[in-house]
Design goal:
It is built from eight helices and two strands. The structure holds zinc ion. Zinc ion binds next to loops.
Length: 186
């Protein structure tokens, strides 16, 4: 019975290494992994997504995208998104994307220039950046909702332009890999 349980947990840990929960597991480290795996069984079953496809980003682009993801959280806070009955931003997904990118940078192979991330992390980052793009484009979110006009429209247009450009580095699964499409901007 105990052996069966251990086998089951080992299987779950293995599954998690190939799912979005990889981020949490990697962050905690392997020592805590087994307990976390047991606790997260249900969540994994609900959320498992294929992560076998990997995407490569230059280190500079990975940094840009992390900064952009943090901007989404900043904009959500400024615009009281989480206090709305139906928030536009899924904070957990944003957190997974940021953490996943950070861990990918940490685990870069020595001597390489590219950060590789799973397709799952790329999808979470894309979904999160699309929230900022769509909320700013429709005027629901602004860089300052104080009510006075002090140049927000221009700042918002620049944010929209920047996040739209960043999204070009995260093509959807149907499109070819990133680094062959877009050169790193100066
Ligand atoms: Zn203001």
């Amino acid at each position: 019975m105990v052996e069966q349980l251990h086998a089951r947990i080992a299987m779950i840990v293995d599954q998690m290494r190939r799912s979005p929960q990889t981020v949490t597991l990697s962050y905690i480290g392997d020592d805590g992994g087994t307990e976390v795996a047991a606790a997260m069984m249900v969540r994994i079953q609900e959320r498992e997504r294929p992560a076998s496809r990997r995407e490569a980003l230059s280190l500079r682009v990975a940094g840009r995208i992390q900064a952009a993801l943090a901007q989404v959280i900043l904009f959500a806070e400024i615009n009281s998104d989480q206090q709305k009955p139906q928030p536009a931003l899924d904070l957990a997904q944003a957190g997974e994307a940021i953490s996943g990118l950070g861990l990918a940078v940490m685990n870069m192979a020595p001597g390489t220039e590219y950060v590789t991330i799973g397709a799952d992390i790329a999808a979470l980052a894309r979904d999160t950046l699309q929230v900022l793009r769509d909320q700013v484009r429709t005027g629901v979110w602004t860089s300052c909702p104080c009510g006075e006009d002090h140049g927000q429209a221009e700042a918002d247009a620049q944010v929209l332009s920047a996040v739209s450009a960043d999204l070009l580095f995260l093509p959807s699964a149907a499109e070819p890999a990133v680094q062959t499409l877009i050169p790193v901007r100066p």
